[in-house]
Amino acid sequence: MGYHVVDTDEVEPDPDRPCTRRSLSELGNLSQMAINRYTAAPGEELPLAYHYHEEQEEAFYVLSGTLHVKTPEGTLEAGPDTLLTVEPESPQFAYNPEDADEAVDVIAIGAPPVEGDAKPYEP
């Protein structure tokens, strides 16, 4: 058995990201899912590119602010205490618009944690 308590504010942010991303899976000793905490100021994006996953399902739980997710069908918005889910093969680009009043704080969970699963999407 194993249990871990992780203070997400004490996790060092990943370098070279368009927003603040803290990778939580490893510290929580998880191998079957990826968990990240994103904090994006107005004008910042969460992913590195408009993309889709071949196998991975994703769930974004919004802690504060409003997450915007561009899709081929239009833009989705998820506010505080909202869960936005993305099925495999579904293109997405998550961001906080420049004219937002505040940062967006999000917990993102992906399973399985497939390395190299993200594929660029070009509309």
Automatic annotation (TrEMBL):
Residues 1-25 are annotated as: Disordered. Gene3D superfamilies: Jelly Rolls. Transmembrane segments: none annotated. Residues 38-100 form the Cupin type-2 domain. It comes from the Archaea. This is Cupin domain-containing protein. It comes from Haloplanus aerogenes.
